[in-house]
């Protein structure tokens, strides 16, 4: 097993961007890592982004993010509604969104 350390050498702001293509991707892909990160670093600010959540999954995605991020110093939850299954063909819209994120 790979050991990961979240220790920091200085007290810089610790900001994390989590991006999932669909509802529950972040939780399944790295949920345990996020929970450990927050446990070891309570001053973390997290921006949680789900790119494609069908209408019925939006509330589920927000509720889940709030549970995972309950110990975060600051959290921002963004749920986009890019059309699932079409990401390769809507690349320009996704790129524009990531350009906006990079300005933050």
- What would you say the CATH architecture is? 3-Layer(aba) Sandwich
Strand order of the largest sheet: 1-2-3
Spatial separation of the terminal alpha carbons:
34 Å
- Given helix and strand content, the structural type is alpha/beta
Helix-strand topology string: EHEHEH
Number of domains as seen in the coordinates: 1
Q: Determine the CATH topology.
A: Rossmann fold
Q: Beta fraction of the residues?
A: 15-25%
Describe the sheet with the most strands: 3 strands, parallel
Mean pLDDT: 87
- Say what oligomer this is: single chain
- Which term fits the overall shape? globular
CATH class call: Alpha Beta
The rounded Rg comes to 15 Å
H/I helix tally: 3
Number of strands: 3
Low-pLDDT windows of residues: none
Provide a descriptive summary of the structure in words.
The protein is an alpha/beta fold and 104 residues long. It has a single domain, classed as Rossmann fold (3-Layer(aba) Sandwich). The protein is 40% helix and 21% strand. It is built from three helices and three strands. It has helices at residues 25-40, 55-68, 91-102; strands at residues 15-22, 45-52, 74-79. The chain has a three-stranded parallel sheet, with helices on one face. The chain is globular. The mean pLDDT is 87.
Features:
104 residues; alpha/beta; Rossmann fold; 3 helices; 40% helix
Briefly say what this structure is.
The longest helix has 16 residues. The chain is an alpha/beta fold.
How would the blueprint of this fold be written?
Elements: E1 15-22, H1 25-40, E2 45-52, H2 55-68, E3 74-79, H3 91-102
Parallel strand pairs: 1-2, 2-3
């Amino acid at each position: 097993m790979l050991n990961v350390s979240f220790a920091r050498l200085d007290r810089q702001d610790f900001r994390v961007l989590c991006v999932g293509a669909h509802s529950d991707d972040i939780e399944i892909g790295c949920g345990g890592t996020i929970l450990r990160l927050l446990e070891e670093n309570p001053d973390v600010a997290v921006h949680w982004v789900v790119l494609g959540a069908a209408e019925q999954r939006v509330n589920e995605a927000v509720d889940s993010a709030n549970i995972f991020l309950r110990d975060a110093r600051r959290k921002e939850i963004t749920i986009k509604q890019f059309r699932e299954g079409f990401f390769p063909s809507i690349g320009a819209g996704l790129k524009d969104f990531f350009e906006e994120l990079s300005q933050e």
